[in-house]
Every structure is written in C-alpha cells, then in structure tokens.
Amino acid sequence: MKLKIEISLDNASFEDAPHTETRTMLSDVAEAVCDAQAWHYGGIDSGSVRDSNGQKVGTWKIDFES
Question: Which of 31, 42, 46, 49 has the fewest CB atoms lying closer than 10 Å?
C-alpha cells in the first residue's frame, strides 16, 4: 500500500513563500488521511490538494495495489 501525492507548483500561491505553502498543503493532506481512517472499511481513499487561494493544485490517493 502507498500514499501517492501529486502537487503542481506552477501557480501564484508559490511565488512569495513556496516552502510555507507546501508545508500547509502537506499538513492538510496529512489531516485528510488521518480523517480518512475509515478507508480500511471502504471510506475515503483519495482527495484534492488545494492551495491557500482554494485552487485545486493536486491530488492524494491511497493505493492499495502497491
């Protein structure tokens, strides 16, 4: 099993403080994965990554086949 995260860094939210924006996004993904503990029981196993402006910039997914 793997956690796959893909984030596009080509938008305005990364211009001023890319490290802060990335940290915030990864923290949000970690929270979503923890909230999705029910994936063991058929719950959420994927989601969107959004920047501080609310724009979708990526995805995360728990891959059960890997």
Answer: 42
